[in-house]
Amino acid sequence: MDAKVILEKLIDLAIGYGPRLLGAIAVLLVGLWIIKIVTRSLRRVMNKRDTNKELRTFFISLANIVLKTLLFISVLGMVGIEVTSFIAILGAASLAIGLSLQGSLQNFAGGVIIILLKPFKVGDVLEAQGYLGIVKEIQIFNTIVTTFDNKTIIIPNGQLANSSMINYTNEPLRRVDWTFGIAYGNSSDKAKEVLMQLINDDIRILKDPAPFVALGNLNSSSVDFTVRVWTKTEDYWAVFFDMNEKVYKAFPQNGLSIPFPQMDVHLHNSK
After folding, report:
1. Is residue 160 located within the same domain as residue 187?
2. In angstroms, how far is CA 207 from the centroid of its own chain?
3. Is the pLDDT of residue 132 over 80?
4. Given this model, what pLDDT does residue 88 score?
5. For the domain that residue 90 is a member of, what is the CATH number?
6. Which residue has the higher pLDDT, 260 or 258?
7. Whose CA is closest to 42, among 6, 73, 77, 66?
8. pLDDT given at position 224
9. Alpha-carbon dihedral 231, 236, 239, 240, rounded to 10 degrees
């Protein structure tokens, strides 16, 4: 009798809740499929409108989370769980979770600040939190940076929004600085002439602002020239390395010696 009663109750439950459960599962599967289509369509629309990459990633991730949360609440309501009670429980749980996940909330707020204030964007060369690399993606909680030796760095947005950083590519122009030395006894006028000629021959170096070449320092073993020129940001490193190589070749060809530290050692024989 006990087994028969249990079986009857199971049948009653299956008859009463089976259609609801099957319907809820069907709605869940269809809802997830629709959310996938909606996020794809949103990404396609934002791509066509040439929206910033960081905005695309941020809003698509946010829309995906919000839509899935609403879907799960609806499915729970179909099963028979009181949605209002569930929302109240969810609110209390959210408060408790929020207190325990203050770091995550800080990262979310940091992501919003980064999106609104735009201290950097995808593709910028950024130095922050001890890392230097190219910003690949700005997510809700983290920013993805790829270093120049191809390492992937994940930096929490909360730390980025509340600390100093260096954006190397935010401005269209950058100044390139060098210090070139010649030996004492060499002609300083000749050195300035050679440096100005190398600068004028490089079309990547801008005429305005004007290049600056001056005798900057008299060191113990060298006469140092300070050289400052302006170029487009994307040409910075190419100009920097090329000029080093050109000076290394041009100075000896023009009778100028590139000094290096030397030490004279005198030996005295004692009787």
Report:
1. no
2. 32
3. yes
4. 63
5. 1.10.287.1260
6. 258
7. 66
8. 94
9. 120
Q: What is the pLDDT of residues 15-64, one digit of tens each?
A: 656 667 777 778 888 888 888 888 888 888 777 776 666 667 777 777 88
Mean pLDDT along residues 179-194: 94
Task: Give the total number of structural domains in the chain.
Answer: 3
Domain with 225 in it: what CATH number?
3.30.70.100
- Residues 19 and 56 both lie in one domain: yes
H/E element, 97: helix 83-100
* Strand locations in 108-151 (E): 125-128, 131-138, 142-147
* Amino acid letter, residue 12: D
Cβ atoms 152, 212 nearer than 8 A:
no
Helix axes 2-48, 53-79, angle to 10 degrees: 160
Same domain, 126 and 201: no
Domain with 152, as residue range(s), is 111-167
Does 239 lie in the same domain as 180?
yes
Instruction: Please list, residue by residue across 5-25, b when 16 or more beta carbons sit within 10 angstroms of its beta carbon and e when fewer do.
Output: eeeeeeeeeeeeeeeeeeebe
Stretch 4-20: mean pLDDT: 62
Give the list of residues 6+ apart from residue 55 with CB closer than 8 angstroms, or none: 46, 115
Q: Does 67 map to a domain? A: yes
For residue 81, pLDDT beyond 80: no
Verdict on whether the full-model pTM lies above 0.70:
no
